[in-house]
Every structure is written in C-alpha cells, then in structure tokens.
Amino acid sequence: MPTKIEKDAISGQMTTGHEWDGLKELDTPMPRWWLWTFYATVVFALVWVVIYPAIPVSGLTGLSGWTARGALPAEMAAERARIEPMLARLREASPAEIAADPEMRAFALAGGRGAFNNACAGCHGAGGQGAPGFPSLADDDWLFGGKLDEIQHTIRHGVRAGESDDQRGIAMPAFLSTGMMTAAQVNDTAEYVLSLTGRATNAEAAGRGEALFSENCASCHGERGEGNRDMGAPRLNDRIWLFGGDKAAVVRTIAYSRAGVMPSWQGRLDPAVVNMLTLYVHSLGGGE
Amino acid sequence: MGMMQAERKGEAAATPSLYASHVKVQPRAVSGPVRRAKWTVLFLLLGLYYAVPWLRWNRGPGVPDQAVLADMAHARLFLGPIEIWPQEVYYLVGLLILAAIGLFAATSLFGRVWCGFACPQTVWTDLFMWVERKVEGDRNARIKLDAGPRDAAWWRKKAAKHAAWLTIAMATGGAWIMYFNDAPTVTREMLTGEASLTVYGFFALFTGTTWLLAGGAREQVCTYMCPWPRIQGAMLDENSLVVSYREWRGERRGKPSDATAGDCVDCKACVHVCPTGIDIRDGQQLECIGCGLCIDACDDVMGRLGREKGLIAFETLSNLAASAAATKGMEPGPARRAAGMAARTAPRFLRVRTLIYAGALGAVAAVMLGAWVMRETLTISVLPDRAPLFVRLSDGGIRNAYTLKLANKLREGGTLTLEIRGPADLSLMVPEAPHDPQGRPLLHARPDAIASYRAFVSAPPTLHLPERVEVTFRLLDAEGRVQASATSAFLGPRP
Questions:
Q1: How far, in Å, are B153, B204, B303, B347 from residue B359 at the CA level?
Q2: Could you read off the pLDDT of A76-113 as tens digits, one per residue?
Q3: Does A32 lie at the interface with B, CB-CB under 8 angstroms?
Q4: Residue B24 DSSP class
Q5: pTM beyond cutoff 0.90
Q6: What are phi and psi of A34, to 5 degrees?
C-alpha cells in the first residue's frame, strides 16, 4: 500500500508512495505509445475471441467457424501430397528393390512402423512380440516364410480369412470332436508330439502315438514334425509354440483343432503401405 | 459542493499524469575522435553484416559453398571449415556464453561500450539519423520543419527520408535471409518472385522491425525495452571508465567572459548532440548509452574557447571523487584544473571483478576448444528393442534385437567392421550387411548422414547367462583400430 506520496527533493518528481528500507520509487510516467500498444493487444484479443473458438463452451465456435478438427483434413491432404512421390516409388518397387535403396528403405521402415502399430499391433503386439495364438514376428520361426516376398504375400492375402484365393494356411481337423480319434488316441498323439522335443511324460504312450501321428498329422506337419509352410503347418520339433507347448495345450489342439486367422490387407491398404509393412516386419526379427 | 469540486480539481492538477507523450530527440551533428571511432565501427559492422553471406567456401560437390550458412532444411550450420549438426547445439550455447561474459568484462572495464558503439540498435539508429540529417537538415532545420506547416516541401522531405530508410531496412531484412539461404540463389528468387512465403515473411518482418526500431523507436528501445541497461549496473564499479562530466571543473556554470565561473559555459552542446536526449551533467543515468558524442561536442567548444579539453570524458567514478576532493573549496581557474587532474590515478584494469570475468572467459573458451578438438566425427548409438526385450529362438536360444545408428559427420563415407565384446559364444548378425572373411558384418558409414542397421545378438541354448549382461558394440577401421563404440545390454529370462 502506498504510504506517503511526496515530491522527491532531488529530481523534483513525485514518488509512488512505496518505500522499502528507505528506498523510494519515483513515479516516472510511462510513454504513451506503450499504453497504446497495450490497448492494441486488448483489441487483438477481442477480435481473436470473436473470430476463433476461444471460449471452451460447446457451440461457441467463433465467427470464422474454424476448428482444429476441421483443419485436419487439409493438413492431412497436404502431408499426403508431400509424401506422394515417395509413396509412388514404393508402390512400383519390389520389396527387394526397396531394401536395396537406402532412401526408400529408411522411409519404408519409418512408415511401416506407424502402419504396423495401426493395423497389426492389435494382434501381433508392439514390435511384433506376439501373443498366444498370434505368432511372434520378432523370432526366427516363420509359419509361411520370412523372406521379403513371402511376408508380402501373407500381408496381401491374409490367413484363412476367406478373403483371397491366394490366402495362406489350411484348416486343421478337430480329431476328437469329429470322431477321427478317441480320447486315448489324442493323448498318445500328444505324447508323441512332446517326444519330438524330448518332453514326453509317458514313453509307452508316445510310442503308440507315433503311428497315429504318421497317419493323421505327418502329411501336413512332416514325419519328424518339421512343419510345412505351404500349408501353414507349424514346426512341432522346436521350442516355439504358437498355442502353448505344454501337454494340456497340445491335447486341446489335437482334440478341437486350432487355426489363426488374419485378414487380407490387399485392397484395405495402399500397396505402398503393404510394401512398407513388408520391410518393417522383415526388420523386426531379421527375416530369413 | 463547489468547494469540494474545486479541491478535487486541485488534487488532479497536482498528481502528474501516468503517461507522457514522447518528445522527439533531435540530435545535432558532431565531429571529433569519438564520432570517427563510431563511424569506423559502424562501417566495419555493417560491412560484415552485409558482406559475410556472400563469402564462399569450397566444401566439395553437393555441399553448400556459402562460408556462413544456417541450413535449416538440411539441419546443418556451416561456419567456414566448421560444420555443426543439430545435436551439437551446445557449441552455439558455448559461443553465446562467451559473448555474454565478454560483454560483462567489456562493461566492467569501459562502461557501456557495447550500447554506445556496437549494439545493432545503436548502429542502425546512427545510420538512420545520418540519412535524416542528409534529407531534412541538422537539428535546428528539423525542429523547424516539424513545427512548420505540412506543405509540399514537408511531404517531399518526409517521403524521401522514409524511402531511404525503407531501402536500408530492406537491405537489412534481405541480408538476414541470406544467412539461412544460399545468398545468390535467394536474391535471384526474391527479385523474380520465386522465393517461398517463409522467405518473404521473414524479409518483411526484419525490414519492418529495422524501419520501426531504427527509424521510429530509437532511444526508447534502450530506455524502455532493453533489459541490459538495468542489468549492467551490476557490472560497473568505481573503476569502470564511463562517460562523465567533470563537475569539479565545470561548476559553477557561467558565461565565457565570467572569470569567476567554472569551465562549463552552459552552451548545451552536450545535450543537443545526445542521441537519447539527456544531460550528461546530471551524472550517471539509465538513459545514457555511453556513446561519448557529448565528449566530442564539449571538446569542440572548449577548444574554441581556448580551454583545456576533457570537461566531459571517459573517466572513472573514483577519479571523479578524487578530483572533487582535491579541488574542494578552490576557486575556478587553471589552478583548480591542475589540482583536479593531478589527483587522478590511472584506471585499474586488473581488479577482482575483471580477473573473475577473464578467468570465466578463459575457462569457457578452454572447455569449448577441448570439446571441439575431441569432437567425434563418427559415433555409434545402440538402441535395444523394448518390445520384445528378447525372443526365444526355435532352437531354444535367446536373441536380442538392436537398432544401430552410425552418425558420420564427415563428407566421405567408409566401411567399418562391427564386432561385439561380451560373454563368449554370443553371436552377432546384421542381415542387411555384407560380411568380412571372418564373418563379421561390414557396415557402411554414409557420408554426412546417419546410417541405420538392425543388429541381432544371439546366445545359444547351452549358454546360461544372468538376466542382464553388458555388450559393447565396436566399429573397427581397416587397420583394426576402434573408431567408435557403445555399450548396451543383452537381456534374457531370469535364470
């Protein structure tokens, strides 16, 4: 609070009346143009409030009708136009050509990451780490092949979704529910499958299962469980299990069958985006 | 009722207005050694500012050949032989710190030399005032012109002045753009209307601010806007050389013919030449930018009166006090002058304050020099995948994936061998890279770019490692010398 407004003896000027430990402040007048500058900012703010949506109340959009959401399509279109030349190149090039060109490759890996998080990560997980029933894309096990062209084919045509004539994978029979095996036979077959990785709990049952496996399973999974990529039949003699590798999971798979489904992305995504995804997925685990 | 109103009116009249209209400062032309020094600094600084963007520097094909260029589009700063990447902005920070300490040191030694001689506000204002003087005449002619009728002559002179000002302002704005674009190219584009809106926008901004600040605002920038006049009181002390009026010699002011008066004849020459419109005889004040033009003006008058020059001079406050003490009670005249001048001592430049500034200046310069000498032109950074942290391989082994970034700050590329140092039996794979005869990946460090590679490190199923072990990635040149290395972690399941 001002205490005593007085005339300063030395300068002849009035003080503000403020005093701090004996120090007094002269009330030097502000330049008038500074005041006008202040008024100008007030006028600017008022105009802004009228033109733009400045008040956070629904319906008060401002005279110009501008909204951030409304401006988005134009910004997206501009960004799209900016990257279109590169997308055109990515559309025409084969995945191998993209991999050989540092500029295209860098763009594809960056763009593929975004597209992957948008379209693929929901099932395959961020970074393609996978989940039970959804294969990991970061390891060295590829159900349908891990070469660039093979990955591109899988993305384009999908898996067992019935959306493309060139789709991947065939269905595995449900041996118990269709009556092709008895429960005891399912158990024996499961024991044999576990024995392929040295994990059988009952050698006798596994021995009985060998014939059953050879008769019912080997045509797709191979005589020694080495898998078959044409059919999408997983390897059974490695340490990677798509639906779980303990005995209960294997029994369930034989009895009721399992089949992963992935949509066909051809027609859903720009061919350039399919190619970017191909490069990105290949980079996750190094491909084959 | 009537009395109360009268009282209120009386109060209102006694309270000064909160706002004051600007009184235009109309400085008179002056000549002398300080003015010559100011012209020299002005020509030097403006010459540098306008000429530097045109200096060329051959850096080889495909690289800008402009000596000083902040290439925003490609995120590079070129300073002659030096090329800085955005992540090395600390070199610029260091330069700014050097400039700041240098400013402190100069201020504590010589007062506001920066404000009075080298500040762009002062330099451009000086140039604009020179133009104004050429078009509208000197102080008295200008005051007369502004007070007179707005006739054809008034309009003609004002138009000519603003046209000249705008020409200088446009050259200033145009030169600014050239520090961020190739000078010949952007000049041609701007003249033919092909330059980008950004270029025209910044050109307009810097043209406008030059015209406004040097033409219109002038000393008000220093008095009201600039924080520096307020800060530098902390750098000045009684040993700093500042522009001072030797009160002990000048007072009592009187006519030249008055033998009993001091040396100051109250001609107001010092006030009339002052670009901020103050009276230096009032002592040290915020508005004084330390340009010293009042020294030239006063020396001129003293010379003509046959009196010793230096009534206003670059002088320390301690000398002012010593002279005042030595001449206390003395009558004006040659004896008082001699006694006052004899009491002075040479300014002390070596003081705790200036030594600290010099030390800080040297320390920062040494750190910057060291950082520059030890600057790595090739760096590798290793970014381990976070999802998944590791994968189980089909044979039961464990694999980690990494993204390697090779930043090569040189304009020539090179091939380097990648190897890892860590637990034995870890194997390294870079699928996209060729291999040397020993099976080690050969990475290509692309010139002036960051090359990115995916690297995979695998542990065989027989290798039992703790949850986390350190792995060092090393880049070797053809002679097997380590050119760059970075350490990361190899993760696995909890044992």
A1: 58, 42, 42, 20
A2: 999 999 999 999 999 999 999 999 998 999 999 999 99
A3: yes
A4: P
A5: no
A6: -65, -40
Instruction: Give B434's contacts in chain A (Cβ within 8 Å).
Output: none
Quick one: tokens of A275? 């190619």
pLDDT of residue B211: 96
The C-alpha atoms of residue A114 and residue A105 are separated, in whole angstroms, by: 14
What is the distance between the alpha carbons of residues B294 and B244, in angstroms, rounded to a whole number?
10
Residues 6+ apart with CB under 8 A from A46: none
| CA–CA gap between residue B471 and residue B474 (Å, rounded) | 10
CB A191 within 8 A of CB A201: yes
Return the residue in B19, B212, B279, B391 with the most chain A beta carbons within 10 A, the one to mutate for interface testing. B391
Which residues contact residue B220 at a Cβ distance below 8 angstroms, ignoring those fewer than 6 apart? A31, A33, B22
Q: What is the pLDDT of residues B90-103, one digit of tens each?
A: 898 999 999 999 99
Decide: B433 and B442 in contact? Cβ < 8 Å: yes
Radius of gyration of chain B (CA): 34
Amino acid letter, residue B52 = V
Fold of A172-256: Cytochrome Bc1 Complex; Chain D, domain 2 (1.10.760)
- Cβ-Cβ contacts under 8 Å for A249 (sequence gap 6 or more): A241, A243
What is the secondary structure of A14-67 as a DSSP string? Answer: BEEEEEETTEEEE-PPEEHHHHHHHHHHHHHHHHHHHHTT-S-STT---TT---
Among residues B189, B49, B73, which one has the least CA distance to residue B64?
B73
B19–A140: do the CB atoms touch at under 8 Å? no
